[in-house]
Amino acid sequence: MSGTVSTPAPGRLEVVRQFINTLDIEEGTDSIASAAGLRRWLREASLLSTERRVTTDDVAAARALREALRAAAAANHDGTALPDNVLACFDQAAERAEFAVRLTPDRRWRLLPQAAGAAGALGHLIAFVTEAMSDGSWQRLKVCANDKCQWAFFDASRSGTGRWCSMAICGNRAKQEAWRARHRTR
Question: Which domains does the chain have, with CATH numbers?
Answer without folding.
Answer: 13-184 (1.10.3300.10)
